[in-house]
Predict the 3D structure of the following.
Amino acid sequence: MKVVFVFLCAIVGILAQNILVVEELKLQHIHDECQADPATYVDHELLHDLAANIDNPQVGAHMLCESTKVGLQTENGDLDFEMIKSKIALTVKDEEKVNFLVGECAIQKKTPQKTAINLFMCLDKNGVTYFHEF
């Protein structure tokens, strides 16, 4: 019985890693799509310090592009709380912490662009970094 349990745990662990790998590849593709569009292209150096570039319109356009394409925000810029929760849960296993992070980070700002930037910065600050480490 213990052997079966260990085997199942190993399979679950492998599947979880595969989900993250697929998700990271998807995010890389989304990033590349946003970079390929002149309207959402941004110099990579600006993305490394979002806080210093929060008012840069190109940074805002790029981050909104990524956020929308990954499903964190709708086409009109509203936050999709269930999708945000599901994406955070890919790397954060404690449901209480997931709910805390959604409440802490998923906050609608004055513009959809600022909402996207603040969402990514907050998640990064709280250790959920896979969203933008390309």
